[in-house]
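residues and backbone:
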Amino acid sequence: MLTAILAAFAGGIILNFMPCVFPVISLKALGLLRHQGNSASARTEGLGFLLGVIFTMMALAAVLLALRAGGTAVGWGFQLQSPLVIAALALIILGAALNLLGVFEVGLSLQRAGEINAEGRGAFVRSALTGALAIVVATPCSAPFMAGAVGYALVQPPVVALAIFLALALGFAAPFTAISLFPGMAKRLPRPGAWMDILKSGLAFPMFGAFAWLVWVLAQQAGTTALAAMLACAVVVSFTAWLYGIAQRRRYTGHSYKALLAVTVVLFLAAITPLPGVMHTQPAQPESQLANNIIEVKWSPQTVAEMRGHGKAIFVNFTASWCITCQVNDRTSLSTQAVKQAISRTGTVYMVADSTKFNADIDDAMNAFGQGGLPLYVVYPADGSAPKVLPQVLTPSIVVNVLNQASGKKA
């Protein structure tokens, strides 16, 4: 248990540097720079982020454990298997990007109220929401040390599992919180100034990139009808945000703003109300990354059992369109010419276990290997001996060497 807790804490720290969390990392960095020189405000923002991370992580963990207790085999990132959750998260990311561009402001009433602690309360709430968003966005990633810890947690009693997820949350929040709470560390950061307005606008574009990625994932899960609905909704929501920004400015210049505010509410509700009806799931057709002469076999427990130990090695790629690490490995390792040639030369059977949508068999298989999240790569030797689990971050040489060993052939 102690090993799993330490691994979860280390994995949480490393998770900050994974590509899926980068857009929200920019928000965290901006918050630090905003309060440079004001240790009280920095501490407020740091504590807000910490509590937002812990609360959201524990809420997700509680839902995850409750679903598993009810017989549903789900794992880390389970909520991203729902097209409706993907659509909602995409709109939140879009709103954050528009906010960074200054289209509208969050907490403007607190900033204008003139109270001594108004800015502090606004910073606390904003930072807590940033922490919550960071955890939700982080779930497609599984950092080193983390997958084994989460896999261990999912087969333990609830109290032990929650302790491990708490360690993961503390590790994830640790870098930002430490810099916020200890002014000596923050002194090395650049001083705030007019350049921060430019930085704030520039940081909107990683958020737009995250929005584009989520829209692509939605298209993989729910088809072109949901994609069209999502894009139309994004246009209406953007227009609504622009109108809301105008209403905010009118309120503090003495102009009538209530009618404009009512229009924004109506437009927003009109945009999001149809979404649940069109977010129906359709079979996702994964894009083949291998050579034409290598056939991808759809994974199933029965197929593995039938083909295992009959003179051919089996390589199983547990993946999902929402798993960024999976996509990076596909393009930097599995789709390289060296790996393609190794699969062809060794006669390895290449299987894909696609978890873009919920698949209980896939989650059961991952649990059997003690892995709580994607990616997962398993190689079954040609002689039927025990399977080998590969690292979560692949290189072509790792894959080629394992395939040579599993097939009993030399390079």
